[in-house]
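Service request form, structural biology core

Requester: graduate student, group of Dr. S.
Request type: structure prediction, single chain
Budget code: on file
Notes: please return the result as structure tokens.

Sequence provided:
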Amino acid sequence: MKKLKDSRSYHYQLDQEGQLWISGSQLKDAATLKFFLKNLEKVKDKTYQVHCMGELNLIQVEDVPYVVQDLQFKEDQVELVFAGNYKEFLDPSTLWVGKDHVLYCKVRKSQMEARFNRKSYLELTQKVIEHLGKYYFEWQDKLFEIVFKHP
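Core staff response, request fulfilled:
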């Protein structure tokens, strides 16, 4: 089936705290935020898109496209909560620390990067231990090394 051309386009900005902005106004509609995060596609570095009902929504990100707003420690998994109550489970093997000591992980089947906001970062560090100069996330009787990546 031939894809129809988008009739209109909108330009958004996503800040480091995971807040989505358009023309100076913050978008707060949970259903829209969840839809965007669930359907985000990478166009190029720091530019993402979502197609919806013939409209192209372009999103410029300040850092990465996903920002963890909250954590929910389940019996056997850690659930990451994003804007719009979009949720994914943490793959602890993907944790790393980047520039300015910001904590990151991979989401969307390891295809996208997410950063932890201050609240979720502090929650997760309650389960971090240090051993011989390295840091580990301790979960389900396993240790997952948190690597340091420098840009």
